[in-house]
Amino acid sequence: MKIVIDSANVKEIRDLYEYFPIDGVTTNPSIIVKEQQTFFPLLKEIRKVIGEEKELFVQVISGKAENIVEEARYVTNSISGDVVIKVPVTIEGIKAIKLLKAEGIRTLATTVYTPLSAFVAAKAGADYVAPYVNRIDNLGDGTNVVSEITRIFSIHNLPCQVLAASFKNVKQLLNVTLAGAHGITTSPELIRAMLEHPSIEKDVCHFRNEWAQLYGKEATSLMV
Question: Which fold has domain 2-193?
Answer without folding.
Answer: TIM Barrel (3.20.20)
